[in-house]
Design goal:
It is built from seven helices and 47 strands. The chain has 847 residues and is mainly beta. The protein has one domain: TonB-dependent receptor, beta-barrel domain (Maltoporin, Chain A, Beta Barrel), CATH 2.40.170. β32 and β33 form a beta hairpin. The chain is globular, with a radius of gyration of 29 Å. It starts with 6 loop residues before the first helix and ends with a strand.
Length: 847
Amino acid sequence: MCVVAGAPGMARAQEGLRLDRVVVEGLRSSAETAQQRKRESADIVDSVIAAEIHKLADLSVADALQRVTGVQVARDRGEASAFAVRGLTQVETTLNGREVFTAGAGRTVDLADFASEMLAGIDIYKTASAERLEGGLGGSIDLRTRRPFDFAGDTTVLSARTARADLAGRSAGQASALISRRVRDAQAGEFGLLVNLAFQERAWREDQKNTGAPALRNDLLPDGPVVAPGGTTETVSLGTRRRLAGSALLQWRPVPNFEVLAEAHLAELRTRQDSHQINASAGTGVVPGSLALFDGTRDLRSITWTDAPVSVLGFARDTLDRTRQFALAARHDGEVWTWSADLSHTRSRNELLFSGPFLATRVAQFHQDFGGTVPATSIVGTDLLDPANWRYTGLAYRKRPFEGSLAALRLDGERALQAGPLERLALGWRRADRRADNAPGLVFGDVGVSGLTAADLAGRVRPTPFGDFLDGQAGSIGSFLIADLGDARDPAALRDAFGIATPLPTAGSALGVWSIRERSDAAYLRSDWAVPSWQLDTRWGVRVVRTRSWLDGTRSAPDTGGLLPLSADTTATDWLPSASLRQRFAQGWQWRAAASRTITRPNFDQLSPSLSLLRNSLDPTLNQGAAGNPELQPVRSTNLDLALERLDDAHGGYAVTVFRKNVVGFVATASRPEVYDGVSYQVSRPYNSDPARVRGLELAWQRFFVDGPDAWRGLGLQANYTLVDSVTPDRRLGQEVPLQNLSRHSLNLIGSYERGPWRARLAWNWRSRFLSGTAGVVGLGTLPIYTRPYGWLDGAIGWHLTDRVSITLEGGNLLGTLRRTDYGAATRPQGAWVNDRQWALGLSVRL
């Protein structure tokens, strides 16, 4: 469980939120509450309130964030996953004000791990303030859970729903319960206990078709080279995603100005995945007359290969993310001073299992046509349903764990002043001890299989049942055998079935194992000023962070072939100033300005001192090595924000924000010659790259119609638009490029209707073309990979049977969006993805 309590959360207990009212009120009320938080905050912030989260098919926190101004998300198995704020993925994430993370090589949390039922709201801070944790270049995100004193009295809310995925053809159940109780005792004071539990299971399917990286071929046409893709990879992945979430919170208020809070939270996500993949590559020959080029290019449009190699991979790929946090906090509100203390412990674990058989064959003819929306493929001349035509080539087995923990103590104080314009002084200190390791490393146990055909092992293959591949949007290889994965999750039994006596490995290479400990001390001072006659308030602060890191790894000794321990001990101090200003003027208008300096530390694997050297006995110029870099500096950003807002209108509002970030030290990888024991190796190491720039514009608008024509009443419209212009040097491409996975334009349109017992909502999320990666191409160098523009449509309809009982019908990915990528040109397609449409029927009861 993830248990949390502490000073940051204690402050929220004083805000006076009445979440019981938010739950039963409609979409307009929830949007107004989020708007109020934005208006009253000293920072530039966007908020999402529980009622907004639960009015669409948002299963996780990541789903709920996708419609926030300035936030862009990636998609994984039909859900929102990786996210960026204003183009930057380096975002600090907290749970009730406390740092939270997902174990791994990185430092961030996977917001898809957290079930949306856990939350009372989400605050997305776009600007920095001295009292908030360092670590976010793009900003910080605080996940707020419900607490007993948020409710005026006893509250019980139960919900259940069933969800169906159209491509997977399966349904799954989901349920949640929130129980909150308050008790008052004349002697001991007031007690509150809240328990919030959620279970989600969702069936899913994702179809993916990838065209192999192109190569410059000089042997296909006599009049010059041809850019020919290397083949096709067609994958159907399906399974279930299961989330468990639990919160237990105890509040005690013995006297009105003193409070103690204890919290415990668990967030767990298990993904079970079966993948069936067929791969076909370029053959040894070409059918005469089958080759055609796109007009005006040397890019291949269609071709039929002969004697082409084909393989089928069947594998289970299961992952587990589990995060638990415990905390205890106290707060005292005096006449002059307010003090709070927070003690917390967080532990996270991440696991991966990859296991299954591989088969291969050769086919008479393999045809590719790249002229359609999605490349078409087919195989003729070979019966791919005949087990005798397939031979087993190997069994895969890979296992990888990550562990992480964090112990933190925080003390905060705030003094109210009567010193003219100086209203308040705040100060605080935080000690954090974080540990991360990947022991025993990546366990790699693939083994080869020879002398066996699919016909030799009866019952281990079956015809593919996925005739609707890519939702029927492209002709694909449709009839072939796939592996039965019944024992793929029992690797020992799988090996026994193939007569393999080699035991499963229990540990990875010592060269890939690392352990890191970081101890940081942070202190801050903040002053709040106000000039009432000018309706002006401002905040100035500085946060000083001293971080000491201990890194342990292993390097190889080329002469002896042995292993040598390698350690590093580094210390760094960072000064992080911040300032903000707000002035209010007529008719509800206000403008803001903010400036700050922020940092993010490199990922743990990038800091690892481990060094791996591989000598080439035939050609010493090909000696290679790979290592981390303990000398990596944090990525630093200087930030400036200006905003103009009108948020006082009870039925609407709008905001315009411009921002600029000058970033120094993005981590890239370079290869350089290094000498060890007199031998030269080409060693790849991460390094801090050249400066980058991110600047942009955010527009937000909302309006709820309560007057005017009768047909308009109850209608609400919300829209936001983000423009992000980013530039960073890319040494592989030899030019400046936008930041990876960042769209220049993104847009959200949300329509809502609420009248009487009915409510409805329709949300459209769209992002423009973006750079999603690079690929090395034979004869062409490095090519960019771009994801083409795409949109995502979700909707929901609800009906209040009574003031305590409601039912909802929700739909996700209503248009069955096709996502596509290319190698920088429409004539060079790279990939295509299709996910399920999801439908859910839900019932909610408030007791």
